[in-house]
């Protein structure tokens, strides 16, 4: 099998090698013999070559590739050089990875249990990045387009429905969970944005009323009070479906409920291809210190395997990570420990 690795910038270069070590350490009984190819993308690549996402990276990803892992890229927030734009946003669009799936889960016995998945639309909304700056009646004005399509909204809601059903199957088979019934929460702001978010809401309702999803409870929550309720009673939520921007914000917020962004994985999923990617960014504040938490990436390896159909190997990885966290002896500094990235990886490998 072939895996493509795109470390990117900052701690991406520290956590992606950790993900690779986990794949290499999986017991041979899984018969997953990966070969690895490193690909370039990111701000560093832009500074070296003038392009943030080389065509070669996109082409190699499209060719005979079973799975891929993406680290993180640094996108400057000021003095942005002309021609630079985030390669991960572009990559999601160019490969039509229309869903970003972000599970957030506490380990057994947590004081305030959380077991939810945020299913974020990954190709449109304000992230179409059609911005302009012009002189208006009030002077300098900037404007952005928020684009929502029925097509993408139906697709993302169906993905949320399928994930809710899959989670229920795992529970029926005896998997541990705080939920008994599948629930999908549609989040939006259609009280203000009646056309864009209105279309998202309407389409999500339509998709989830299809025969296949009859066993799922469907509810709606306006996005500002969604944040409030998420903090007040996180255990209520099972699967949350959201347009791109709200999904981005909600998943970082949900990461705080489990203690660290360094724990939360994601997968960018298309029709027949998935790229695992930790939810966090390039974390320049801890770059180069060897203390980045590798768990978000290791769990992203699990998600990548799940979407490749290798559910048993994924389960093995999740339980090794949970065992490391439950024991709590080798934790990285973001979780209050003093273990280095490598020590956490080695502890998890021992448990595979
Ligand atoms: P960040 O996620 O990089 O960091 C936020 C905070 O969480 C920091 O204090 C950081 O130290 C901590 N943190 C994140 N991951 C951690 C880990 N694995 N272990 C321990 N601590 C961890 O977000 P930011 O600081 O807002 O952004 C930094 C850069 O990352 C920016 O250039 C931004 O554009 C980029 N970014 C990239 C992506 C991506 O590539 N998908 C996503 C978000 C941010
Ligand atoms: Mn984000």
Automatic annotation (TrEMBL):
Record bears the keyword Disulfide bond: no
Name the Gene Ontology molecular function terms of this record: homoisocitrate dehydrogenase activity
Q: Where is the Isopropylmalate dehydrogenase-like domain?
A: 5-348
Which enzyme class, named as a word? oxidoreductase
Superkingdom of the source species: Eukaryota
Tell me its EC number(s), please: 1.1.1.87
Q: Which PROSITE patterns match?
A: IDH_IMDH
What InterPro entries has UniProt attached to this entry?
A: IsoCit/isopropylmalate_DH_CS, IsoPropMal-DH-like_dom
What is the name attached to this protein's record?
A: Homoisocitrate dehydrogenase
Its source organism is: Coniosporium apollinis
């Amino acid at each position: 099998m072939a895996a493509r690795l795109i470390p990117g910038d900052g701690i991406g270069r520290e956590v992606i090698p950790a993900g690779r070590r986990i794949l290499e350490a999986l017991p041979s009984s899984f018969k997953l013999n990966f070969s690895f190819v490193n690909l370039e993308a990111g701000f560093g690549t832009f500074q070296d070559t003038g392009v943030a996402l080389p065509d070669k990276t996109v082409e190699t990803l499209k060719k005979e590739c079973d799975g891929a892992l993406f680290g993180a890229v640094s996108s400057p927030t000021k003095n942005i050089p002309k021609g630079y734009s985030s390669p991960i946003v572009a990559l999601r669009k160019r490969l039509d990875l229309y869903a970003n799936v972000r599970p957030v889960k506490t380990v057994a016995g947590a004081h305030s249990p959380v077991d939810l998945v945020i299913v974020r639309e990954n190709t449109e909304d304000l992230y179409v990045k059609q911005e302009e700056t012009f002189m208006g009646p009030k002077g300098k004005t900037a404007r952005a387009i928020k684009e929502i399509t029925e097509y993408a909204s139906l697709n993302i809601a169906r993905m949320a429905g399928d994930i809710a059903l899959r989670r229920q199957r795992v529970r029926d088979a005896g998997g541990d969970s705080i939920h008994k019934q599948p629930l999908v929460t549609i989040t939006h702001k259609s009280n203000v944005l009646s056309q864009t978010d209105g279309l998202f809401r309407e389409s999500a309702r339509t998709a989830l009323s299809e025969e296949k999803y009859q066993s799922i409870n469907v509810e709606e929550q306006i996005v500002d009070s969604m944040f409030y309720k998420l903090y007040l009673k996180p255990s209520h939520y099972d699967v949350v479906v959201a347009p791109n921007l709200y999904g981005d914000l909600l998943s970082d917020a949900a990461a705080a409920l489990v203690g660290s962004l360094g724990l939360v994985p994601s997968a960018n999923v298309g029709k027949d291809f998935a790229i695992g990617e930790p939810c966090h960014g390039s974390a320049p504040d801890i770059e180069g210190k060897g203390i980045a938490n590798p768990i978000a990436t290791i769990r992203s390896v699990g998600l990548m395997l799940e979407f490749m159909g290798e559910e048993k190997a994924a389960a093995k990885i999740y339980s090794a990570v949970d065992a490391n966290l439950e024991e709590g002896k080798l934790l990285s500094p973001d979780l209050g420990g003093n273990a280095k990235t490598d020590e956490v990886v080695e502890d998890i490998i021992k448990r595979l």
